[in-house]
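Continuing the series of single-chain predictions for the mutant panel. This is the parent chain; the variants come on the following pages.
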Amino acid sequence: MQRSIRHKLIIQSLQTSGLLRVEQLADLTGASQVTIRRDLVDLEAHGALRRVPGGAARTVKDGGAVPYSVRITEDREVKARLAAAVAGLIADYESVIIDNGTTCHAVAQELAGRPITALCLSLHAAVALGSTPGARVIIPGGPVEPDTLALLGSQAIDAVRSMRADALVIGACSASATRGLTSTLYEDALIKRASIESSTRRILVTVADKLNRTSNFRFGVPADLTHLVITDDASADLLALFREDGVEVITV
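Parent structure:
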């Protein structure tokens, strides 16, 4: 079993059971007990669980987020395809706002080395883009969210509002054609809304299953977008609703 899938399975099992022994986790994943113990050390370091004698206990509440270090390793090939498609929509010397999240992180990696100006709403994206000469990287001030390293405070919103970007690369927790674009965090929704208002082209990059979800805080509607870059397993009927709102849909 792939390491990232094993980690996710361990976290999800603990959310249900609360406490599991090393032997149980080994049986569940098919990994050796030595491997499981290494996994528990890694996951505890990211706050995903608490090690106890002989096993691990839940620390993330039910429905809590899977650590970024686990999510970033999931579906790498899919995210790379999405990122390449998004990068093709951005010209050299343009200004870009790059949202937080693992798929937007992949876009930042794809844009590395390009002569663009990028306002990054996550330190993960800023490092990915700024580690290679070429781009001018801007980071807004304010507090940084643990784990995701997202910048969600009022200073970040002010920085976004002071910019007139050629393009916005944005993610969403949910992207329903009928219920709108939504986020699980109020602060995240605020900065996404400000980013939409500050950008000429608004590119939503996501996977197909997010079209069937909804979250608590709405930051926009499909008509706010100019482009939707999405995996090719998305429902044709749902994509048609985006096209009716004037959104250019690109499937990969």
